[in-house]
Amino acid sequence: MPRKTVARTARLASIPLGVAGRAVGGWGKRLAGQSAEAVSAELSARTAEQLFAVLGQLKGGAMKFGQALSVFEAAVPDELAEPYREALTKLQAAAPPMSAQVMHRVLAQQLGRGWGKRFTEFDDTPAAAASIGQVHRAVWHDGRRVAVKVQYPGADEALLSDLRQLQRFSRLFQPFAPGMEIKPLLQELTDRMVEELDYRAEAGNQRVFAKAFADDERVLVPRVVASAPKVTITEWVDGRPLASVIRSGTRDERDQAGRLLSEFHFSSPARAGLLHSDPHPGNFMLTQDGRLCVIDFGAVARLPEGLPRPLGMMTRLSLQGRSAELMELMRDEGFIREGMRLDPDHVLAYLAPFAEPASVDTFHFTRAWMQRQAERVGDLRGQDFKTGRSLNLPPQYLLIQRVTAGATGILCQLDAQFSMRDIITRWQPGFAEEE
Fold first, then answer.
1. What contacts 61, CB < 8 A, 6 or more positions away?
2. Residue 225: phi, psi to the nearest 5?
3. Treating both helix axes as pointing N-terminal to C-terminal, what angle do 383-390 and 367-378 enclose, rounded to 10 degrees?
4. How far is residue 131's CA from residue 182's CA, in Å, rounded to a whole number?
5. Side-chain half-sphere of 358: how many Cα atoms within 13 Å?
6. Closest to 44 in 3D by CA, of 27, 19, 65
7. Residue 274 bridge partners (DSSP)
8. In the chain, what are the domain boundaries?
9. CA 420 to each of CA 186, 245, 300: distance values in angstroms, whole numbers, following the listed order
10. Strand 219-220 and strand 231-235: pairing?
11. 3 and 154 in contact (C-beta within 8 Å)?
């Protein structure tokens, strides 16, 4: 994992430089008679290839940022997104691995020189790679199949360096997340990634989730076997990655995955007091017995009182068209800063479409729906853009908003159709209650 700031900065800088160089080359090809469409398609494909190569090789904050962007590709118009879709999806589950020698050294540092005696089998070839670590198949000394996650050496140094540098290039990535500001996303990633570096804390989070969902018929959280600051060992689970369901799942699989994902996110604050806050398809699988397997608990929001009641109330007031009460509640909760003057009807018009999935018995999450929302709030000339820019996101709602946006992106990638209203009615305080 490249550690030095100069080396990592040079690689990140190669992305905008490469884009600029290809643009100049494309201009020359147009002069030579090639069609604008052909040149544009070639530029997009090559840029996507470079984006994956650079972010994937750097891992760390760069790869984490790529994963965060990947769930928003559903909001990008198809003619622009297609070349990037596969490149970004690769970042959800794959990256160039570290060598077996380096990995063994980390295991010896974390588990002791005799670490190998703890396993009856250990596969040096990584089964998966994440943003700050990679996963290996193994068999624990008691015969259990386990997943061993090993953190990349230098991940801590590289993470913050990446995210600082990515701030400089944030405008380049804006097309991947229309309607969202990239800089705040990067800042929030920076804050959360420091927490994710300590695998002991992640193991503690996972233990809480595993206990809360023990023997659950819908959700499976692998139990933690052992942990250290840079190594986590959990029970191995076989399943179909959500990226595979997105790519080629049947209608039933897509609907089931979407429903289970939503139930997990809405129910876990009430059941575990925590909210899984890293929503991208690489962290979820469908098991053979029809459950949703959830992994990677490094980023969580602590919600000991469950989901905030005002969120359910805001959704209900939006659907009921009660603009004055909605705006008053938003002022009380800090979504509208003191002294900010807004038209209640404009605020309602901005929020109501986002509440649409809770307005019907069955809602169909599609890329077209998400694209409409992105175009609506991202239109610089529209009222919704002006309203959105005037609203505030209180710190206590930041992670909840990230999970909601990321999970909605996944639902639209899945093209899932199910009753979101039933889930919100059961698990979101304030939604089904009348004052």
1. 131, 158, 159, 160, 161, 162, 163, 166, 189, 190, 193
2. -95, -45
3. 80
4. 19
5. 25
6. 19
7. 302
8. 5-91+156-193, 100-155+196-235, 309-427
9. 29, 19, 22
10. unpaired
11. yes
pLDDT of the residue at 434: 62
Selection from 132, 159, 134, 167 nearest residue 148 by Cα: 134
| Contact (CB, 8 A) for 146 and 263 | no
Structure tokens at 30: 């147009």
Residue 424 to residue 324: CA distance in whole angstroms: 23
Please give the C-alpha separations between residue 196 and each of 59, 167, 245, 396, in angstroms, as whole numbers: 14, 20, 27, 19
Please state, in angstroms and as integers, the Cα–Cα distance from residue 36 to each residue in 42, 46, 87, 260, 374, following that order: 10, 15, 23, 44, 26
| pLDDT tens digit sequence for 170-201 | 555 555 444 445 566 566 666 666 677 889 99
pLDDT number for residue 58: 46
What local confidence, expressed as pLDDT, does residue 374 receive? 82
Q: Which amino acid is at 412?
A: C
Low-confidence ranges of the chain (pLDDT < 50): 1-6, 8-45, 47-48, 52, 56-63, 71, 80, 84, 91-94, 176-180
| Beta-carbon contacts of residue 379 (< 8 Å; ≥ 6 apart) | 385
Residue pair 127/147 in contact by the 8 Å Cβ criterion: yes
Task: Give the pLDDT score at 98.
Answer: 78
Chain mean position to CA 343: 33
8-state DSSP, 66: H
The tens digit of pLDDT for each residue in 218-255 reads 999 999 999 999 999 999 999 999 989 999 999 999 99
Q: Are 264 and 273 in contact (CB under 8 A)?
A: no
Tell me the pTM: 0.77
**Assigned token pair, 24:** 């100049």
User: 100-155+196-235 belongs to which homologous superfamily?
Assistant: Phosphorylase Kinase; domain 1 (3.30.200.20)
pLDDT score recorded for residue 196: 74
The CA distances from residue 389 to 4, 340, 358, 379, in Å, are 37, 11, 24, 11
